Amino acid sequence: MKKLSASILSADFGRLAEQVRLVEQAGVDWIHVDVMDGHFVPNITIGPDVVKAIKKATSLPLDVHLMIDNPERYVQDFVEAGADWLGIHVEATVHLERLIQNIKELGARATVTLNPATSLNCLDYVLKDVDMVLLMTVNPGFSGQKFIRGVLPKVRQLRQRIDAENLGVLIEVDGGVHTDTVSDIVAAGADVLVSGSGIFGKHGGYGPGEEDDDARRLAANVRRLRELMK
Ligand code: DX5
Ligand code: ZN
Prior knowledge:
alpha/beta
């Protein structure tokens, strides 16, 4: 069963706890939390204290995506704040293997994340050690960007490799996941789809009063994405 992880980057930050509860009610599987430092990516979002607050608002697993330089300095804080899955970018550390082990020792699942231009070769000596690989289908930093179709062959190659080596590693895709891209992503072999604007945005075609009612719009958006994930 494919999983849907809701990126709260597209939520109303002024009502974050409520938005997290609504998206849980709408039926997503995980809450995806995008942490940005203004160095690794050109945007700044949230830190461990906000992750702690989100943890209190939901019973769903927290899928934390660190887009920060020197992630080794902060993994402990984010695990203690409630990250169930903790993702670090291969481009942000020179001690990848140590960091993966560190995350697992702290008690979280380790996700290794690759930017669109990063080759799968960087996983050669660590793939068996990770719990999930996140393949970015936009350049990280913002929600609402256009899906980069050129990453789909990379998803397919990784699927083949994980299956051939009989590994239990999950493949997650993040960026530009919308009704027009979901089928291709699923066909390429992804297990977990992250969606921000696809879940929180307004995409038309709603029933009367649905568009401006957050609970009903989120439920409709989640239903549409799920239909295509089957
Ligand atoms: C981008 C983030 C994504 C983003 C996805 O840097 O990692 O999680 O919120 O947003 P959409 O689904 O709108 O592309
Ligand atoms: Zn993300």
